[in-house]
Predict the structure.
Amino acid sequence: METAFSALVGIFFAVAVYLLLSKHIIRILLGTAILSNAVNLLIFTAGRLTREVPPIIPDHLAVPEETIANPLPQALVLTAIVISFSLFAFLLVLTYRAYQELGTDDTEEMRVAEPVDDGLPPMGY
Amino acid sequence: MRTLIFRTMAPYLTSLMVLFSVFVLLRGHNEPGGGFIGGLIAASAFAIYGIACGVSPVRRALYFHPMSISGFGLFIAAVSGALSMFGAVPFMTGLWTEASILGVTVDLSTPLVFDIGVYLVVLGSLTSIALALEEREED
Amino acid sequence: METAGQSLTLLALFLPFLAACVAPSLARAFGHNAAWILAAVPAFLFIHFAGFVPLVAEGGHASGGYDWIPSLGARFSWYLDGLSITFALLISGIGTLIVLYSGGYLKGHEHQGRFFSFILMFMGAMQGLVVADSFLTLFVFWELTSITSFLLIGFDHRREASRRAAIQALIVTGAGGLSLLAGLLLVWSVTGIGDLGTLLASGDVMRESPFYIAALLLLLGGAFTKSAQVPFHFWLPNAMEAPTPVSAYLHSATMVKAGVYLVMRLNPAFGETIAWETILPIFGGATLLTGGLLAVRQTDLKLMLAYTTVASLGLLVMLTGFGSDKAIEAAVLYLIAHSLFKGALFMVAGTIDHEAGTRDVTKLGGLRTAMPITFATALVAAVSMGGLPPLFGFLAKEEIYAALGFADSWTTVLTLVAIGGNALMFAIGFAVALKPFLGAKVETPKHAHEGPVLLWIGPATLGLVGLGAAIFSSWSHEHLTDPMASAVAGTAVHAHISLVPHIGLPLYLSLVTVAVGIAIYVGLAGFRAAVASVLSTIGWGPDRGFDQLVRGTIRVARVVTAFFQHGHMDRYMTATFLVIAAALLVTPAMYGEFPDWPAMPKLPFYEWVVLLIAVIGLWSVLAASNRLTAIVSLGIQGFAVALIFALMGAPDLAFTQFMVETLSVVILALVMTRLRLSPADHRPVGERTVDAVIAAACGIGFGLFLLRVTQGAFDDTLPRFFAEYSYAIAHGRNIVNVILVDFRGLDTLGEIAVVMIAGLAVLALIRIRLRSGDEAAPEPGKGG
């Protein structure tokens, strides 16, 4: 089972990286969304997979009697999902605002922070 | 998207979803659910309401600014951890007590307060983001 | 008693820094009269250190200290012997007078409080430097003097010349500080000794070490930069951009002598070797002649004095390097004399500048009637500088010649250099002291008159001390000169020189010096023109070299920055992912850690379908050419992930992922409908291929990595712990939720804080837009 999921995670990463290597901010944005899914799946799979047994202790017991899914990666991934959504929302608004202000969606033309030729710094003291 | 049916349905849908989100939040300690999921459901509810009826009714309905709700949530989450100071135990040690409300025995605990804090932070922040984006839609 | 004395010394070392903290408020409350209060601090230090004079006069020393960083064996400690005490007395004594002088000199300056603060800080640093015992204390105070000197030279920070001089001094002395640090560390690692007291008592251990030359050169690198030896002399005249009290105090009497102090301090441990007795006299002699000749060229009073200071420092280094007991005695006498007369002359130059409005010696004359007290003090100081009786400078010069002589050719050369340098200094000293006062009255920018008491009390006191020390020479020898010279030499030394005339070679050499000096003084104008024309023919000096070095550094930095930070986002990304792919693929190849070839996985049919849906979703994101397709495809892969979570026993995750994907699609739709951008791929085919190869490498790398991880043994300690204790101690049956709110609650607290900050950031981004939109619509293509 882990083999199939490793392949799937590989595909997720490949697609995310391919999108991130683009020059267009929309594609980069889509890439980050997929990258966060890729990472979540990676962590989830690394904690081993168990089918259909959620990590919940039955009502009448103090300790689960059968093998349950590993709860730790679930807890890690759960917060990661919410945080990556917050980041995605932030990037989305940033993209949108950058497009409004700079009038371009091409990262090659977004040169406010690192201008094309800003000349030598002042030579005086 | 503002069809008549959607607009009529939206307030009821939203109320139901918010109610459900509180249910998910409270049962979260023993069944699937919890603050993160509850907060997400409530935020989706307000986002839907905003799309259907516009942003200002949502803001009026919430009364507080969403980010204030978020801030309050972070505050009570932190306070719930600090409560353990009075028990002379390390920060964020869970404290439990039982209270009788209307004849029903309810477990009250600092992790529950913490989870409510998580719920409010997620609800507030995500609602704020969604409403801010919907607002741009209007002008 | 011992501990009381210790804590008093500790207090004395910190008092200047405490005074520096309150100086600005005092200056605000009392104006320039705050000088009278603040001068009490160095006066207290002077009295405190004077209390050690009887002890060191008997050849003893005091030391003390506290643990600083015990785990590293570092101590904050001090070592008081004749050398330290004489320096400490000079620093605190002249410091008292300088504080008073700057009260008058900067009267009414808006930042006088800041100035007091800086100068007291410097005094504390210098005081700490000369009494330091452990290497760490020495280095920290050494650097503090460089930093406070930077602040003081750049005090008038609105002028570019000041800023340049300050940076130059900081770079030169700071580089020297690094060299000193390296030297101290080398000594420490070679000998295992971490403090000066032990090093001085350890005899030949350093001289016999194979690292002797390296350590010596590194330490001298510190000393020579600080004491402005050729070729590092250029920063000192430039430092004259500082207000005159600073020039008088730091750049003649104290800080620049720190290098000489270091050389003298190290003499017992490092001296009396061929390297020591060659390097020091050569650099010292070269500095003496260079300083003297360059001084002749100047017409600015302060610059003339500055170059003679360079020359004097050279003379001191030369004498210390010469190494005989008499030479050290001479160096000690000259060091004390120089601090007294040079400090006084600088203050006189400052007073003239302050009262007459110019420091140019060619535009001054006939001030003797307007400023009689200043004239008198200048004359006394110049007599000492010229080495004439009855002042302390005379004793120093006699001793120098007594030490050198014509014993062999090497000594003869040094004697000739000393005569030349002294004659030049004689001429300059009298040029500064006589030219502005004698002759016909010259119109000056300001109407000149005698300065207030604060301005003349300092130089007058220094002149009187110089006179007194010479007249009562047996007392001053016993209490200051001999202990200091003994500390430098490492053995007991006794001086016998006095004002009583003694016919012999030294006296003849003195007469020759005076004769040559008078000749130079008379022909000063012609000599100046000659030196100037020679210098303009050369046309290059270390000062210009410094500018070229700074500009060159900036140019190189720009080229390097342009290479690494070229501003092409896609190239940054390419580089990042290339490294990631290499790390994932090359590392396991090197260590043979690739996973085994797996068997074909056996999955139920519906799981294959879910995986297929995810892959289809991903593919259609890649291929999407319009907005709607992109949004929907992104949703598809997200929901597929949610389904995977649901199938694999993670209902909480499935639910969360489902809600998040819904919200993502909603906000993506809200923004994308307004962006009117096509998500289609615009890259040319070649670029696409390269990117696809990198992406595939990354994907394969991560896939293999994960496969290798899952093929390894699984440590189930943590899952078992959570399963066993979730209900028992945390009263929760949903283990995931218990981990989130209880076991790892602190993490969650941090994470919800991040969520909230993201919310605030989004709000801020949108708000900024609304505000700038109110004022003026930003032009496209320009930053808002």
Notes: The longest helix of chain C spans residues 160-191. Chain C is about 75% helix and 0% strand. The interface with chain B takes residues 651-652, 655-656, 659-660, 662-663, 666-667, 670-671, 674, 730-734, 736-738, 740-742, 745-746, 748-749, 752-753, 755-756, 758-760, 762-763, 766 of chain C (CB under 8 Å). Confidence is low (pLDDT under 50) at residues 774-784 of chain C.
